[in-house]
Every structure is written in C-alpha cells, then in structure tokens.
Design brief:
heterodimer, A: alpha/beta, Rossmann fold, 2 domains, 7-stranded mixed sheet, 38% helix, 22% strand, B: alpha/beta, two-stranded antiparallel ribbon, binds thiamine diphosphate, binds magnesium ion
Chain lengths: 325, 333
C-alpha cells in the first residue's frame, strides 16, 4: 500500500517514526511544539511524545545548537530545528567550529549523533534573508553530512537515516517543496545517506539537480523529450557523502552534463561536482559541462524578479538545447 | 527530609586540594618552559594564579560530572584526572597526546573522566554545557555540568542565550566566571557595563549574584559544593563569579606589561598556593606532610615531562582519521 502525502507531512512522519523507535530522540526549536512549527512540519508530535521530548526554545539559535551538541555528547540523539537556514549565520560558530570539528579535534573521544533540520531555499517571495540555498555553506566544512531531499518519500527515508547516523547531519528541507505531494509506502522507511537517485534515464544528456531543482529538471527533461532529446536526471539527495559513482556513471553514459543549482553561482555544489568530472571523466565528455545557477546576487523578493533569478524550466530547456545544437 | 549539609573538608581533603593546586602550577610552569624551548608549538594560555578555582571545583565534583572549559583549560582538564603525561604529550603534538596531537594546548579533552573539552571560540561552550545538563536531566543521571569561562566571555551573546535557557529549563549546570580582570590585554572594566561582569548580571536571569574569592580554595570548594548540591536537587543553575588573577600574560610569551606594577605585585602577594600552604600549616598540617607533597609533585611533573618528551611523533597516517564515526574521513564513494 502507498499513500499520497505532502513533503511537510513527511517531516513529521519521519520524526514520529524515529521518536517512536528510540526514546533518546528529542526535538527542539522555536515554535516546534505547541505551534507545530512555523512551516507546520511538526504538528502532532507534542501531543504524541509529550513536552519533554518536543520542546519549544527561546529565539536563541546558539543555545539551540549548543544544546543539541551538548546533549549528543551526553547520550541523547537530538534533532534541532533552525527555522530558516539563513539563521544558521547566527549560530555558525556552533555548527562549523564546534559540531563539525569536535570528533576530529578530540581524536574520536566525542561522538555527536545529532541532526539540524532547517527550511532552505527560495521561490516563496521572502527576499534575500529568508530564501537562501545554503547547502554549500555546510558542504564546505569538513565534519558535516549534508542532505537535501526532493520528495516526501526521501524526506522520510533520509531524515530517518540522518537521525540514526552517528555523525552530525544538516538536513535541508526545501520551503518551495513543502506543499508538494508524493507517494510513500506504508511502514517504516529508512534510506541510506550518500546515494544519489537516477530519477529519469536518457542517453543524450545528464542533468544533475538537488532539492527543488529536481522537479524542475524533470519537467525540463519532459519538454526536451518532446524535442527528441532524452535526458538522464540525477537527484543528488546528499552532498556529503557525495555519490560520485552514480554521477560519473551517468556522465559516461551520456557525455554531456548540466548542473541545476539554486545557490548563487560562486562555489555552489556544482562547481565541486564539475571539478570532479573534469579530473576523472574528462574523456567521457562530448561537450563542455554547463552550470545553470542563480546569478551571483542576493535573491530579490518580487515574484517577477525572483522567478527570473532562480533557474527555471525554460532556462534549463534552452540551455540544454543550445548546448546540443 | 534529608537535607544535605555540606561538611567542610577535613585536613586530608584539604591537603589533597593543596596537592592539586601544586600539580596544576608545576604543569603550567613546565608547559611554559617547553614553550620557550620550542617544544610546545603554537600557543599556550596558562592558568598560573587561577588554580584555586579549578582545584576547589574538581575536589567538590562527582566523578561523573562534566567539565567544560576554555583554551585556558590545562588546570581544569588535569584536575579532572586526565593523565598528565598524555596531556603534556598533547601540548607537544605527540601521538600519545590525549587528542593524538589533533587538539593542541587550546583543546585538551579527556572524556573518560568527564573533561568534555576546552573551547577556544569565546562563549561557545556555555550553550554546549547547557545541552549536556539537559541530557543529564532527561536520562536521570544526576550529573551536573560545570562550565568555566573568563570575564570577557560575559560580553558575548552565547553567554546570555545559555544562561537564559538554563534557567528556563531549570538545568543542572554551574556557570563559573573566572574574573581575572582582563580580556586578553584590555581591562574588563573598560569594556563592561557593570562592575562585576557575571555577578551583577545574575539578576537578569533570576539568579543570585555570587561573588567568591577565586584565590581561596576553601571558599571555592564550599561555593562549588553548594552550587553542585543545588543543581543535583533539581534547583537549577548557578552563576558564580570568582575573582582571581593570572600571574603571567594572556598567552605564549606575553609579558603582560599592560598591567600596572602595583596591581601585579598585590596579586602575586596573594598567590593561592603559598597562602593555602600557610593556612594548612596553621590548621595543623606538619611541615613533613606539606614538604612530602611538594617533593612528590616534583617527581610527578618530571615523570610527566619525560613521558611527553619520549612520546613518539604522530604518524601522518592519522591525519585523515576520526572525521567520522567510522574512524575515517571519506566524503565520497
Ligand atoms: C569569539 C572570539 N572572539 C575573540 C577571540 C580572541 N580571544 C581569545 S581569548 C580572548 C580573551 C577572553 O577573555 P576572558 O573571557 O576574560 O578569558 P581569559 O583569557 O581571561 O581567561 C579573546 C578576545 C576568540 N577566541 N573568540
Ligand atoms: Mg579574563
């Protein structure tokens, strides 16, 4: 049996699944308990697991992240919510200097099994401080695992895997996808971090995408198909660990590669992926790799401006067709 | 009701505290010497002059309590029973170091006995200690988290966030501000809105402002015992300000010349170690007992330094280990 649920419902489903399984899993954050989350990703958890395990915090991002770090050191497997990923800037010391480095700096004495969930990405007209795609911030820091699912099923499977992972995971939930629906099977779902998914296969080009860019890449692939171009679409799902095997094999099969990135141009995840392709699969390429990204600008709020900034289906289609001409 | 009464320590216990302070002092003097010889690279931040805070607390803490301290953390880590030779080895960047040479002077950690890390970004460990205390409550362990930090740390946002959350959640955490009158090279009074950076702010969190003589190990022990007992009874956090002084500079070879001579002279005259030695002699400790400790600590530190100097350099094979829980550093397949 399978059920159609939203991406935001999948978050609560995953957390419930893991909190049911392991009494050491706790959830804290601003407005996560009584209010069920600003994005309504955690409703019902307070009622089901009680006020000790689902707890509202003050507006104290450093205290929230510090608290899950200290708790992970002392026997819990806590999950923190940072309401908007942009707010990670206010607690980046805890994330990048402390959580990411503590196992290494202590030579393995201290383990930090924790998850930081955060609403990421644009397309919702919130402007430059509530819309960023910041997965590349996390990707650039050794010691953090980085997950960004695109479907309800992956939200459940990968959030469960993140909670069970013995290392710190930053879990990016895409704001633009919260209302999207997808099928999820009944029963427990647990995925594997570091596995990309080939969501469409075709011999003419490979489109690499993440989170909200995945449905756009798929739609673009459908439109390209109408023009006789059959593309492979790979949903990376995780940036760390990175499934280079799947990426490189798609490159070998198609010879043409496009990345679709919501982040601003410089140092986006695609830059790293493209450099790996250049080093390891150069002779598989039939044409230059092309990155389709947001311009290197802060995101504007107006719908007209924002839509023209973030990679669109049209831009993907046009870029691929022009390149294949 | 069984009200715990904190008994003052007996002479034996106080002699142990004396020994702890002396061990810390000799450890730091050796660390400084090894730094000047070029064997300790990078930096050191010594706790010479501040030993009474670390010893008073370490003596009062339970074996499973958790310590969080700063880059000025040698005293605290050592006195929570970390192995001295391996601590010194860490300063020398050797493979036997407590962190395998990956931490260094500012990051001494010895988790097996609850020394949960030395934190070098000012303020970071206050919320982390709060989290450890939160887990202690949820798991019903009865542990208390003790968090040591400097006067300068009271001016960073994490201080406020941590104090507020600890109080709101009623957590067993003891915040200990070691007010040594300076943040690096700047007198704390010139950059702080109140005279006592921690105690004067306690009221903002509904806490009592506790000021204690940080050069008096008996006073520190008593204050620590009260705060630990209070935390263990479920009465929540405490904020303690211990007034003390570092004898040397902020770090490395800093001569500390920004401090008035008269101020330095007065504080050196209040050196906690000779003061305590004299007090214990007055309280009935024999010169034989005290001298015995002095001699034994000399042998103890020699052994630690020898162990560190003899310890092997780390293998470069260790560089890419312990990023992840699987022991490795792979980020791709
Ligand atoms: C966030 C941050 N800012 C600045 C520094 C540089 N720094 C290192 S120690 C220090 C002084 C801290 O003073 P205090 O808290 O009084 O501790 P003390 O060194 O006196 O023990 C400063 C400014 C730092 N490590 N972290
Ligand atoms: Mg100071």
């Amino acid at each position: 049996m399978a059920e159609l649920i939203t991406y935001r419902e999948a978050v609560a489903r995953a957390l419930a699944q893991e909190m049911e399984r392991d009494p050491n899993v706790y959830l804290i954050g601003e407005d996560v308990a009584a209010a069920g989350g600003v994005f309504k990703t955690t409703p019902g958890l307070l009622e089901r697991f009680g006020e000790r395990r689902v707890r509202d915090t003050p507006i104290s991002e450093e205290a929230i992240i510090g608290a899950v770090m200290g708790a992970a050191m002392n026997g819990l497997r806590p999950v923190a919510e940072i309401m908007f990923s942009d707010f990670l800037a206010t607690c980046w010391d805890l994330v990048a200097n402390q959580i990411a480095k503590t196992r290494y700096m202590t030579d393995g004495q201290v383990a930090l099994p924790l998850v930081i969930r955060t609403a990421n990405g644009g397309g919702v007209r919130f402007g430059a401080q509530h819309s960023q795609s910041l997965e590349n911030w996390a990707m650039s820091v050794p010691g953090l695992k980085v997950v960004a699912p695109s479907t309800p099923k992956d939200v459940i499977a990968l959030l469960a895997a993140s909670v069970r992972d013995p290392d710190p995971v930053i879990f990016f939930e895409h704001k633009g996808l919260f209302a999207s629906r997808g099928e999820v099977p009944d029963g427990e779902l647990v995925g594997q971090l570091g596995e990309a998914s080939v969501v469409r296969s075709g011999p003419d080009a490979t489109i690499l995408a993440l989170a909200a860019m995945v449905p756009k890449a798929l739609q673009a692939a459908d439109e390209l198909s109408a023009q006789g171009i059959e593309a492979t679409v790979v949903d990376l799902r995780c940036l760390v660990p990175l499934d280079t095997r799947t990426i490189l094999s798609a490159v070998a099969d198609t010879g043409r590669v496009f990345t679709v990135e919501e982040n601003p141009r410089l140092c986006g995840w695609g830059a790293e992926v493209v450099s790996i392709i250049a080093e390891e699969a150069f002779y598989d390429l039939d044409s230059p790799v092309v990155r389709i990204t947001t311009d290197h600008i802060p995101l504007p709020a107006s719908d007209i401006l924002e839509d023209a900034t973030i990679p669109s289906v049209t831009r993907i289609v046009d870029t691929v067709t022009r390149s294949l001409d | 009701m069984n009200v715990a009464v904190v008994a003052g320590p007996d002479l034996d216990a106080r002699l142990r505290v004396y020994r702890m302070m002396l061990e810390a002092r000799r450890f730091e003097e050796s660390a400084h010497q090894l730094f000047l010889e070029g064997l300790v690279k990078g930096t050191t931040h010594l706790g010479i002059g501040q030993e009474a805070v670390a010893a008073g607390f370490a003596a009062a803490m339970r074996a499973d309590d958790l310590t969080f301290c700063t880059y000025r953390g040698h005293n605290h880590t050592l006195l929570r029973d970390a192995p001295p030779g391996r601590l010194m080895s860490e300063l020398l960047g050797r493979s036997e170091g407590v962190c395998g040479g990956k931490g260094g002077s500012m990051h001494l950690t010895w988790a097996p006995t609850g020394a949960m890390g030395s934190y070098a970004i000012v303020g970071a460990h206050l919320p982390i200690a709060v989290g450890a205390a939160w887990a202690a409550v949820e798991r019903g362990t009865g542990q208390v988290a003790v968090c040591f930090f400097g006067d300068g740390t009271t001016n960073i946002g994490a201080f406020h966030e941590a104090l507020n959350l600890a109080v709101v959640w009623d957590l067993p955490v003891v915040f200990v501000c070691e007010n040594n009158l300076y943040m690096e090279y700047t007198p704390i009074g010139s950059v702080t809105a109140v005279e006592n950076p921690a105690a004067d702010r306690a009221a903002a969190y509904g806490l009592e402002g506790l000021l204690v003589d940080g050069n008096d190990p008996d006073a520190m022990y008593e204050t620590a015992s009260d705060a630990l007992a209070r935390a263990r009874r479920g009465k929540g956090p405490s904020l303690i300000e211990a007034i003390t002084y570092r004898h040397g500079g902020h770090s490395r070879a800093d001569p500390g010349t920004y401090r008035p001579d008269e101020e330095v002279r007065q504080w050196l005259a209040r050196d906690p170690i000779p003061m305590y030695r004299a007090r214990l002699a007055d309280a009935g400790a024999s010169e034989e007992q005290l001298g015995g400790i002095d001699q034994s600590v000399e042998l103890w530190i020699e052994a630690a330094v020898e162990e560190a100097k003899a310890a092997p350099e780390p293998s470069v094979d260790s560089i890419a280990t312990e990023v992840w829980a699987d022991g490795g550093s792979q980020w791709r397949n």
